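Question (not urgent): is this output format expected?
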Amino acid sequence: MSVDRDQVLRSAAALLTRKSTSTMDEVARAAGISRATLHRHFAGRDALVRALEELGLQECEAALDRAGLGEGSAQDALRRLVKELEPAAGLLAFLYTENQLFEGEAQNEGWSRIDARLAALFRRGQESGEFRFDLTPAWLTEALYGLIGSGAWAVQDGRVAAKDVSYMISELLIGGARRRVES
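Got this back:
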């Protein structure tokens, strides 16, 4: 029987998003495979998390491409981006809490590329007068990650309707980042 690695990763992501402390046995059950089969693909939890990281990076970069960050206003680009990231929000919420991914020299350069693209969007918004100058692009990027993760958890727990979360994330972030011109 052939095992679809992508399906195993997506099953693992769905489970770990709900229960980040899941065991490899639980991941195997969720994927509908044996633990031995899971271990043939991923030697342990670290290897699984690293594979999930690669999936998350792919999903983020595809969302960034689809959102057309250079088109229209920075605010509209941010709204499009949040909408495009929504399907991957649960996976991103899980990855955001996996400290091992962001420590030391082993940090994946993919996150740096994504951070740079997001910071460029926020910088463009500052340069066009849409966003405040007192909030750095790096801080706005971290705020975006945090809101996406919080939104995913709120939807998962039933505290926020899935159809509303993109709007709420975008408007909260834009509302806080919007430059106000004093008269």
